[in-house]
Amino acid sequence: MVNKFYCAGVSALKKNFLPVILLVTALGLAVALGQPLRRFPNFVDWNTIVTLSTLLLITTGIKESGLFYLAAYRISRRMDNERLLALLLIFISALLSMFLTNDVALFIIVPLTLSLQQIADTDYSKIIVFEAIGANIGSSLTPIGNPQNIFIWHQWGISFLHFIEKMAPMVLVMSLWLFVFIVFIFSPKHLTCTNHRHAVVDRSLFYLAAVLLIAFIVAVEMHWERYLLGIAFFSLAWMRKKVLFKTDWGLIFLFIVIFININLICQVEAAQHALAHLNFDNPRKLVLSGAFMSQAISNVPSAILLANYSSNFKVIAYGVNIGGNGLLIGSFANLIALRSIKKQFKYCLFHAYSLSYFTITLISIYYFLI
Q: pTM of this prediction?
């Protein structure tokens, strides 16, 4: 019995290794800054946590209904080329993220990819990494694609179409480089269905999850998302209790710890002094600041910070959206994608591609668009 609990504990620690490391970091920063632990809840954007929790519950319900597996089965029967499959999935990820945000896009496309992986008995970890990159690119185009764009859109009162017009050149460059990466990294090798089973869809669960998803979109628009979490939780607990246990609550804990770390890092005096002495009137320095700051504290808080030092919304948006790729912390969408990859050395795999892509797109945009 002791051995069983030990193995379960080790397994849980491996799965939640990053949240544990970040929690230890937060405790260390709190001690160094003299911040009491009771202030930790104040550092968390609970509206975001509630929204993500609701969405995670609903998409888990859709996944458990078997719909993703059925869709994956039909796709696998029509597309047997790895490169074309990667292009399709990454394109869908980018397209969805333009209107549903990058997080929502990945909550939809990643379970579909995992179902395809199960059918083909092939590792699709690379595809998931590039789905995250694609979601970060697609979401950069519109003011509703990601949280940093929503903030910039409201902060400067830009029209919807004007925002798209300003972001289009950057998104075009990033998309072209994404296409180049896909062509060189994914081979046109033949894929076969080696491990498929009869697709059974739990229609009752799917209909419930679909209704909840529509209600979720409406609730977010009306700012009622906190009420929908309770409705989703109790509805799924009543209809299909297994969904509650299948939901990756560790991902929510990870987001909570990240919010705490970001707020603590922003209180470090050295960081505040460094920002005060930077020349943000220079567009090139501003775009570099946004890109590299995102690698340290994520792109959303970076956008909020830079808005206090510059009114050049286009360059701020360029910097923080480029910075969504690179290190894992650059965008919350990266965390959603990486959380689903079970491959050993997944952090090395993610950063090998994401950092390469971040570097080449930053250089291209720095020299040709700024």
A: 0.78
